[in-house]
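STRUCTURE REQUEST FORM
Protein name: MarR family transcriptional regulator
Source organism: Neopusillimonas maritima
Requested output: structure tokens
Priority: standard
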Amino acid sequence: MSNIKNNQESDAAIEQSFLLKQVGYNCLQAYLKIEPDIKKRLIRYQLKPVEFTVLSLISANPQINQKRLGHTINVSPPNLATLLDKMELRQLLVRKRNPNDKRSQILELTEKGQFLFGKARQQFEKNESIPNLSNDEQKQLLRLLQKIFL
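Status: completed
Returned output:
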């Protein structure tokens, strides 16, 4: 008899009406739903999402410095330094003294970094659709999310 009760409890919907009214909860749940697809696309290039982000920003912003990059992706200087160290060891990027400000370093992709970013980028350009959303809904979602952080 207790097995029947347990099965009924596990089939019942979980009450989450309060949380479903919270923007943060909804953003987190949406991210958790789409993150596995992002990781699956990047794993074949041995890239983590944050590494792909770094490669993308350096590619699109020649002469970007570490400070601006860290601020843009909201990563603390010590954590960014560790991330960049690892990416430099993999020969994906190089840090160079900024000729205009000797206190800062500019970031550049290596040939290997450019190639890897180009291949990984193709994975997202082909088909980066969000389940259950039309193209128009996806564009609207992007606009609304960007209003929060841009």
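Reviewer notes: The first helix runs from residue 2 to 11. Residues 16-126 form a domain with the Arc Repressor Mutant, subunit A fold (CATH 1.10.10.10).
Form closed.
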